[in-house]
Design goal:
Elements lengths: L1 E8 L4 H13 E2 L2 E5 H10 L31 H17 L7 E5 L12 E3 L10 E7 L8 E6 L2 E12 L2 E10 L2 H10 L9 E4 L1 H12 L3 E8 L4 H4 L8 E4 L2 E3 L10 E3 L4 H10 L3 E7 H8 L1 H8 L7 H10 L9 E7 L1
Parallel strand pairs: 4-5, 4-6, 6-11
Antiparallel strand pairs: 1-9, 2-3, 3-8, 7-8, 7-10, 8-9, 11-16, 12-13, 12-14, 15-16
Length: about 350
């Protein structure tokens, strides 16, 4: 492996706990080398110190939170549009949406997108009824991901290099050989990314989670909202898509504030399309949030747009959700159906 140390951190509390646990697990003398997916997984999901495991952490919303999502808007318009769109897809295929049960995967603690839906939260067993409308918001981009770089004529896998120094830790990145299965994925989806220094971020954890959902025996629709990007779009992003959010600011150094920041990336929609189709789903679509809702929730959008008060909170939220200058283009929705 090769690489340089590039950042220094001295932490307290949660952040100190995450790094100490990782270091103890991987330490060889004063140094430890940790795969990016393991580092990100610990920062997000460690049972004691992980970002998503902490009941005291306000992650989504306004003041005091780290980031906004469409679902965090208080008027609930996103939830209404998502539910209406799922019903539209069901009607097109089966006619009667009432026989399908809404199931939300990855709901925030205490939150629920669709009233009376079945909610599957972090750590819950994934159980899906026979007929289901399966929905999620930013589930797949919150899974641990690996980082790769094309260097020296080949794809190499990234690792976090941690060195204990004085009262803190130094961080850097090193690179080693990628596994055969990882190289197969990179070759399949990014054959034109073989340019010196090009970076790709892939969550094999998210792919396995999605496959486990699709392989279960159930009929219905999938409607997942996320930061999806196609393989073609990712080829236009040579630095990868990994980023972190804290107090509504984003930054690229994922080693800052471990356990106290959201770490995310943009999942490749082509990979999920292939899994869905392998599992018998059809009519796979990947669209901007704006396009998907305009196409599938037209009546709901019209009813809100025609509200007489121009300052109605629901009208303002509608603009935020579907306007390309706000959330309409940033978020994408993948959908598919299976009999």
């Amino acid at each position: 492996m090769e690489g340089d140390f590039c950042a220094v951190g001295k932490f307290q509390g949660v952040m100190d706990g995450v790094i100490h646990k990782l270091f103890r697990k991987r330490a060889e003398g004063s140094k430890a080398t940790v795969p990016w997916e393991e580092f990100i997984g610990a920062c997000l999901y460690d049972g004691e110190f992980g970002y998503y495991a902490r009941p005291d952490k306000k992650r989504v919303g306004g003041e005091g939170a780290d980031f906004y999502t469409s679902a965090s808007l208080k008027g609930g318009i996103f939830s209404e549009l998502l539910a209406e769109s799922a019903r539209t897809l069901i009607k097109k295929r089966w006619g009667n949406p009432e026989i399908f049960r809404f199931v939300e995967i990855g709901a925030e603690p205490g939150g629920q997108l669709v009233k009376n839906s079945d909610v599957i939260r972090l750590g819950d067993e994934i159980s899906i009824p026979k007929n289901a409308a399966l929905i999620s918001n930013e589930l797949l981009d919150a899974r641990p991901f690996s980082r790769f770089k094309f260097t020296g004529g080949k794809w190499s896998k990234g690792y976090v290099a941690i060195e204990k120094s004085g009262g803190g830790f130094s961080f850097g990145e090193t690179f080693g050989d990628a596994e055969a299965r990882e190289l197969d994925v990179l070759e399949k989806y990014f054959p034109r990314a073989k340019v010196e220094g090009f970076r790709i971020d892939v969550s094999f954890d998210a792919l396995e989670l999605f496959r486990s959902i699709c392989e279960k025996k159930w009929s219905g629709v999938i409607v997942f909202a996320d930061y999806f990007r196609s393989a073609a779009e990712l080829l236009e992003l040579p630095n990868g898509t990994a980023r972190a959010y804290r107090k509504h600011s984003d930054f690229s150094d994922l080693t800052l504030y471990p356990g106290d920041t959201d770490i995310t990336f943009s999942p490749c929609s082509d990979m999920f399309k292939d899994i869905a189709e392998e599992c018998g789903f059809s009519d796979f679509g990947e669209e901007s949030q704006e396009s998907f809702f305009v196409k599938n929730a037209e009546n709901k959008i019209r009813s809100i747009a025609e509200l007489p008060d121009p300052m109605d909170v629901r009208k303002r939220e509608l603009v935020q959700i579907i306007n390309p200058a706000h959330m309409g283009a940033a978020f994408r929705i993948i959908s598919a159906v299976r009999n």
